[in-house]
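Let us walk through a complete example step by step. Step one is to write down the protein sequence. Step two is to encode the small molecule, zinc ion, as a SMILES string so that its atoms and bonds are unambiguous. Step three, shown after the inputs, is the structure prediction itself.
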Amino acid sequence: MKDFLLLPKGFFRRVLSSCASFLFPSRCPVCDRPVWPPSEKICLSCLKTLKPIRESFCEKCGKKVNAGLRLCSDCTRTEHVFTRSRGAFGYRELSKGMYRYKYLGRREYADVYAKLTYSQLADYIHGCNADMIAAVPVSKKKLLKRGYNQAAELAKGISKLSGIPFSEGALLRVRDTAPMKLLSPSERQKNLKNAFISNVNVVKSKRVLLVDDIYTTGSTMDECSRALLEAGAESVYGLSVASGTGV
Ligand SMILES: [Zn+2]
Ligand SMILES: [Zn+2]
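Step three: the predicted structure of the complex.
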């Protein structure tokens, strides 16, 4: 019995947790199979397929651009409402996993997405000097159907890792919008008009880091930023796990 007492603190917890990860490994957000090795949250081989957006990205929206370009073509034409935004990884390699995360109930991916995003963009996240984190909201109807808001789950993870508080009540989606996939940028903007409201008591004079899962044209990020700024936020910075490529 004495020997047990000499074991380092947390030993049994660690043994139990490694047994649990062997018996119930997490599913990989890339291949959706049980993660290998089981102690990880994403297969090491799948991790290598992701494409971090590290250099030659648009200074405004963070999309990957050709070397030497300062802005993507979208940002040379469009004035965004947010101050700037960054995405951690190219969208293509994450697209299937993002679909399962958003529509097929793979809520468990949130942790690993948040960790990967934070490890990739910690300098940016802290450099924004944000007072709080907000998430792009989903409508009540979608929340009931899905059981969770995929952006809020990511925001909670980023909050835990960065120490910046997350406020679930900063933004509210007041009406549902048509699916954005097949809409042009101007149609997207019209579609989202007045879809969000923000709480002045929560955001007034605050620098806000706004989290979403995917950045495509920036229209959702813009409309949420507009609501936050109208409610008195000082500035809005965007953050997403995945981002499209700029041309
Ligand atoms: Zn995998
Ligand atoms: Zn851009």
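Step four is interpretation. The first helix runs from residue 2 to 5.
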